[in-house]
Amino acid sequence: MSLLTVNANAACGQVKPMHAVNNGPVYKFTEDQRITNIDAFREAGIPYARTHDAAFYSGYGGEHCVNILAVFPNFDADPEDPASYDFTMTDEYLKVMLYAGVEPFYRLGSKIEHWPKKYGTLVPKDFHKWAVIAEHIIAHYTEGFADGFRHKIEYWEIWNEPDLNENSDPVDKKTWSGTRAQFFEFFDVAAKHLKARFPHLKIGGPAAASTGTDWTNAFLSYLKEHGTPLDFFSWHIYASTPESVLRAERETRAMMNRYGFDHAESILNEWNYVKGWKGDEWVYSLRAEKGLKGSSFVAAVIARSQYEPLDLLMYYDARPCGMNGMFSTDIVSDRLKGYWPFNFFGELYRLGTAVGTVSDDPTLYAAAAKSEDAFSLMVTYFEDKDTAEKKHAEIHLENLPVGKDAEITIRRLDRACDGEVTEKKKVSGKDMTLSVDFDLFTTLLISVK
After folding, report:
1. Whether residue 382 sits in one domain with residue 317
2. pTM, rounded to two decimals
3. Is residue 6 part of a domain?
4. DSSP secondary structure letters along 257-305
5. Is residue 358 located within the same domain as residue 348?
6. In angstroms, rounded to a whole number, what is the distance separating the alpha carbons of residues 16 and 312?
7. How many domains in the chain?
8. Structural domain boundaries, residue 230
9. Contact 294, 236 (CB under 8 A)
10. Does residue 309 sit in the same domain as residue 372?
């Protein structure tokens, strides 16, 4: 038998935005052929959506949105002239996000390019001009430039995965066609320009494909040596065990601190379940992401990242695609198993105050939160083997912030249930013990109020 204990007096800071995503909801402001998941975003309270790879999906605007090459199609044009910009589809895409209550996290640069010919991932021919273009994009969305807006968009990220395929031939480099030295100089120019222009906004990057590598250490060393501002360091990891992700979160924070960036936020803004990137392992990974196993992995990472030195966690990807475990690719209004951990954690996020959890079983991953008069616990049973036995657990809840006429509600995510309430009853007292049977990959949300 496993034991999980949660003492509601063991408060440990605010619940952090661990249920953010890449890309926003699908929605049309005209009703014809509208299929949408905007209500699902609202119900989960998704706090942020990163704009990376939005251009792959026609429903967002396809090749006409987000990327520098889409918004400023002629690099030789005048960046001071509003006529040089095409904001139309990006305006609409961000409008949908904000309509859903989601704050955009804007990636400045290009989507990944898997093709033999590169377009947006080529080294900019003038680093300063690129920074001026980025400045005017930010000004359009936050200061009204070019008939723009005054949106609340705090995070602005420079580039994506410049370290990917570093030693490959240029034709095989999917995200940055140049050298690391070129990128370091480019980032320095862009970050200094943008931070000087927008000191109140958060300017960072580089959305590194890996962390704790020679490349990322050299990058932070360069920034330290050159006095480059860095409000956040963003990075990625794909793994098949939650422990791999959690360990990387700790190691990344330590690496940042070594180079004097202890003030900067650590943002993991691409992650998902991946056993391998080739052959049968890749196919297995995609199937797992869209099923119950993927949902349990998501719940485990979200839950325990709350207690790690991480500031923002962003799942890849809520865009209709093969790696989206949240929604059906064709009928986006259909919620998959992987949506429900975001919905469950949204309940914790709304409560506000994180509460520590203690378990004698490393395969039970849990997070808890409370308000003045309510409490919620999300717990999942995950192992990276599909034949693990079911297990019995006792869950001890202590010092709950509720009165004598409280009610407990249990919502279940398993092979038969998609977030439905499976138990509801009146309870009395501030302490209680629950006896629970867990099948592998089961996730529960237990709420008392």
Report:
1. no
2. 0.97
3. no
4. HHTT-TTSEEEEEEEEE-S-SSHHHHHHHHHHHTSHHHHHHHHHHHHHH
5. no
6. 7
7. 2
8. 16-352
9. no
10. no
In a domain, 11, yes or no: no
Token pair of 317 as six digits? 């990807």
H/E stretch holding 92: helix 88-99
Measured CA distances, 154 to 43, 93, 151, 192, 431 (Å): 23, 17, 9, 17, 41
| pLDDT per residue as tens, the chain (449 positions) | 999 999 999 999 999 999 999 999 999 999 888 999 999 999 999 999 999 999 999 999 999 999 999 999 999 999 999 999 999 999 999 999 999 999 999 999 999 999 999 999 999 999 999 999 999 999 999 999 999 999 999 999 999 999 999 988 878 899 999 999 999 999 999 999 999 999 999 999 999 999 999 999 999 999 999 999 999 999 999 999 999 999 999 999 999 999 999 999 999 999 999 999 999 999 999 999 999 999 999 999 999 999 999 999 999 999 999 999 999 999 999 999 999 999 999 999 999 999 999 999 999 999 999 999 999 999 999 999 999 999 999 999 999 999 888 999 999 999 999 999 999 999 988 999 999 999 999 999 999 99
Q: Do residues 235 and 365 both lie within one domain? A: no
Please give the Cα distance from 229 to 293 (Å, whole number): 40
Same domain, 346 and 362: no
> Are 256 and 369 contained in the same domain?
no
Residue 413 domain flag: yes
Residue 244 near residue 272 (C-beta atoms within 8 A): no
Contact, 252 vs 224, CB < 8 A? no
Q: Among 352, 382, 412, where does a domain finish?
A: 352
d(CA 252, CA 235): 9
Identify the residue whose tokens are 């589809």: 89
Cα angle vertex 187, ends 181, 192, to 5°?
A: 135
2 within some domain = no
Domain finish residue from 317, 352, 387: 352
